[in-house]
Design goal:
Length: 255
């Protein structure tokens, strides 16, 4: 009986030892797995940072930076001359891995209406960013995201402009900057055209038009109307270096 009891005690002792070793082994395996997961996460994080650095290094200048409740979007001119669309799904930020990157974009100037549309294609989808300088209402002006699938509109959303404002004003302007047609930003009913021979035609928007001559010195443009009225306007740089402004005397024109 004493031998049996001793054997049971001995077996129990070794069993406890084995259980302890097994627990220690399991704990070490868990710690090793955690370290591997941490290392994998760190590797992924570094890869994302490298991707962001590479994407940023390709940029010549940013054209559009905007957002709505679902997306943050940037459109960039690249150093190789390409136009790129890059988008992040909220709540991601621009320091995270992008959800969508599109290249080979096309720019569509909007003529007398003012503004530019940036068009990107991906299969059956068209991704379009509209930057409308003019419109019949304030709500129709600004930046919009339009998504088309096989030509059918699936989304049209006004975006919040996050583009960093820059001073595009030049130190001086020449007559070449002035020559051509200028419109009021909203309804485009008031117009003025400057000609090479130093004359202008001012359309009042109510069917009446006035002629005169102009002189330009640096950023000032003096208009002398044939009816004796004088105006002095100031020429300046427009949004994103894509337009010019002409303001003063209650007037506001863009080119």
């Amino acid at each position: 009986m004493r031998k049996i009891l001793s054997l049971v005690i001995l077996i129990s002792f070794f069993s406890c030892k084995n259980s302890e070793k097994e627990n220690n082994l399991n704990q070490k395996e868990t710690e090793l797995t955690q370290k591997e997961n941490n290392l994998e996460s760190r590797t992924i994080e570094l890869e994302v940072k490298e991707q962001i650095l590479k994407l940023n290094s390709e940029i010549n200048n940013n054209i559009i930076h905007c957002e709505n409740k679902k997306f943050t979007i940037k459109i960039d001119n690249l150093k190789n001359g390409d136009l790129r669309y890059i988008s992040w799904n909220k709540p991601k930020s621009i320091s995270d891995e992008p959800n969508l990157i599109l290249y080979d974009g096309k720019v569509e100037p909007q003529g007398s209406g003012g503004g530019f549309h940036y068009v990107f294609k991906s299969g059956e989808w068209n991704y379009i960013i509209e930057n409308n300088f003019m419109g019949e209402t304030l709500e129709s002006m600004g930046i919009f995201l339009k998504l088309l699938n096989n030509g059918k509109q699936k989304l049209y959303s006004k975006m919040t402009d996050l583009t960093t404002e820059k001073d595009y004003d030049l130190k001086s302007y020449s007559k070449r900057n002035l020559i051509g047609n200028w419109w009021t930003p909203n309804y485009a009913v008031r117009k003025v055209r400057f000609n090479e021979n130093g004359t202008f035609l001012f359309e009042n928007g109510d069917g009446k038009s006035f002629k005169g001559t102009f002189e330009m010195y640096n950023k000032s443009v003096s208009l002398k109307f044939n009816n004796g009225l004088d105006k002095v306007l100031k020429i300046g740089g427009g949004y994103n270096n894509t337009s010019l402004t002409l303001t003063g005397g209650g007037e506001n024109f863009v080119k």
